[in-house]
Design a protein that fits this description.
The protein is α+β, with helices and mostly antiparallel strands. The protein has helices spanning about 15-20, 55-60, 75-80, 90-100, 100-110, 125-135, 160-170, 220-240, 270-275, 280-290, 315-320, 350-360, and strands at about 5-10, 25-35, 45-50, 65-70, 85-90, 120, 140, 150-155, 175, 185-190, 195-200, 205-210, 210-215, 245-250, 255-260, 300-310, 325, 335-345. Helix 1 (about 15-20) crosses helix 10 (about 280-290). It is globular. Strand 4 (about 65-70), helix 3 and strand 5 (about 85-90) form a beta-alpha-beta unit. The strands form three sheets. Strands 10, 11, 12, 13, 14, 15, 16, 17 and 18 form a nine-stranded antiparallel beta sheet that branches. A five-stranded parallel beta sheet has the order 3-2-1-4-5, sandwiched between helices. A four-stranded antiparallel beta sheet has the order 6-9-7-8, covered by helices on one side. The N and C termini lie far apart (about 45 Å). It binds adenosine monophosphate. Adenosine monophosphate (AMP) binds near residues 139, 179 and 210.
Amino acid sequence: MKSTRVGIVGAGQLGRMLALAGYPLGVRCLFLDRGADTPGAQVAPSLIGDLENPVLLAELASRSDVVTFDWENISGAALEPLENITRVRPPRAALEVSQDRLAEKALFTRLKIPVAAHAAVESRAQLIQAAEKIGLPGVLKTRRLGYDGKGQYVLRAAADIDAAWQAIGGAGLIYEKFQEFSRELSLVGARSASGQTVFYPLSCNTHGGGILRYSIAPFANARLEQRARGYLKRVMTALDYIGVLTIEFFVVQGRLIANEMAPRVHNSGHWTIEGCVTSQFENHLRAVCDMPLGSTRALGHTAMINFLGVMPDRERLLAIDGLAYHDYGKAPRPGRKLGHCTILKRLPKERTKALSNALKLVEWA
Ligand code: AMP
């Protein structure tokens, strides 16, 4: 049978893991990204140039049965012409909503999914008003292009307003109430064009400086899992979604508060490569290529640790039983996601012990 051709906008580690998951399925990926030595280009062919270059995007689309994304911030205007050439999945509307924190919260609210109290901020005066109305502490964020804690400022007291404004002040901001959460959880799921949905077990995520450091999964809480699945399914249905979709939640006094969504495979789902029957990467490809979705059943108890800024001692980590190592092939830079490892164990207590041993070998820079 002829292989299925998938075009991927962006060739970072997510694209790389998609391409690697594609080979056994007979899916061949082609990337578009700026560099010749991106994580994706190391494992599959790549067009080289700007991600919004209309000529290159059209070439990518014409050489693909479906176009999908490693990077979701491509503008709707750049994407629209591709829809006349090939299928674009997930749908453009999903990308557009997720590009704007305010639009995302409006969608969640319309679907009766709880979010933090928030207000749009376009000026310093509006920030003062928002902090008074919503209260302190709070977080000032850029509505667009913020990720991994970038473009965010935590305000503890009214005296922080000036510093916050100096740090990220301008138009296009959102102020939200600081959530005193007990945990951060995320739910990854997939939906196909026929409306088939599958959901992974919940991941419990620990961040440092706004970047994911490690996750443990499955996070066993039947009540929260059922709730989260209901919320994710509502968003998928509302957007007529195709592909993998993730929602990140805060747990505040036992309730889920949605923080944000990602219309793609997610860092907190990397554990599914070794930890589930079908990984998030394979299910994303299956969904966008109209294949039946695969089982999301967990194979044991896992922990995933991100390598940030510096790579750890590979040999010492590999000596831990049940550990899988992933190097994204990137040059080290402070705060940059360079790789991850996943530990798979039969019992939670074995996982916890191996996680604590592995954490001693990983430093975040
Ligand atoms: P985000 O870019 O919105 O995913 O934020 C990155 C991280 O910053 C989150 O995972 C939280 O750890 C923290 N954070 C963001 N928004 C809030 C909030 N409203 N209250 C408390 N912590 C937050």
